[in-house]
Structures are given as C-alpha cells and as structure tokens.
Amino acid sequence: MTEVELVANRLASHLHDQVMPWLAISLFRADRVAARWAAGQTGDGAMLAELEALRTELAESLERLRHLAASLKRVQRAAQLRAALEASAAAGLAARRGQPGGEVDGAAPQISFELGQAAALPPDITEVICQVVREGVANAVRHGRARQIRVELRREPGRIRLEVADDGTGFDRSKLAELGRRGHLGLALLRQAVRARGGRLRVSSRPGAGTRLLVALPLGRTQHRS
Fold it and tell me: What DSSP state is assigned to residue 146?
C-alpha cells in the first residue's frame, strides 16, 4: 500500500468516526426542532436551547471538515512532490540511456523514495531538489553503475534535507577537482545552485562503497547568494 493510500484510509476513518456522528446528531436535533415547530411549541425556552445546541454541533462538524480538507490538501501536495521527484529521477536515467555505463546488465537501477513529512515546499526549493535528484541519479548510473538508488527527503526545524544515495562503485573524493578540469562539471553546478539558495551540498563517497549526495536547504525567507 502506498503512502497516499495509507493517508487516504486514515482520512476515510476520520470522516467516518469524527465527522459523520456529529452530522447524525445534528440531523436528529433538527428533526426535533421541526417537530416542536409543527406542534406550535415555539415560545418556550426548550426550542431555543435545541437551536443553540444544533448551532454548536454544526460548527463543530464544520471545523472537523476544515481539518479534513487541510489534510487532503497535504496529501495532494505530497503526491505532487513525489511526482516531481520521480520525473526528475526518470530524466536522470534518460540522460544516460544509450551511453556507455548507462545500464547495468541491461537493467535500469531500482529507485526508492522516502519523503517523510516534506509535503509542501516553496517552488524554488523544489526546483533545486529536483535538479539534485536528476544529476544524482544520472551520475549514479553513468559513473557508478549503481543497482539501487535511494532518494530521501525530510523536513527539520527551519530546513529541508535531501539525500541521494547509491550502491555504485563510488570514487575517490580527492579526484573531484581533477574531474572538474576534465569537463565533468555536474557536481560543481549543483553546488552553485544549492549555495544560491543559502544551502550546502556535501558529497560522501569512496571506492567500492557507493556515493551519497547530502543537501541541506533553509526554509523561509533566505537571501540568495551569488
């Protein structure tokens, strides 16, 4: 069962257990008010009390429905973010298709996504995250010949953290500068994009141990760096 399906089940349970009973009580009370009105019992305090109770119950139902609508909005945003990350990963795979090292034993690597609570992000943050995912997947396939790639996104107080990890061949980090001089500028461009939004990019790798791209980006108003 997917994350979206799990959340949808929780929302359905909330609707059934928390909202529908209040609406049923309100309907029952409305019937009682209608019966009093039909019987001409409009001048006593009992009917006024019934109307006040009905108003309270309807207000509570409305508040619970608002909470439910907000939860549904979060589910929608989570689905949109996941779709954007999956599209970026697919673009990374497509960028290396047909090139040497673009496939491992004729099969594309398995890519998993862990999004945690990072459902709604500012557009500029989403843009740079997708850029990192696209380049990270492309490098994992092209240079690392990875079979497994994991994309993890999590929200922390005041920032968002992204990790793109693979089980590929890895590399000697001391050779990063040499790779740049040979025209492999992908990581350098990623670092610039992350820094422009006030974030940090760290590369963790060693031969035979895969590669991890670790990104931390601040949330809220941040002065872009040049």
Answer: -
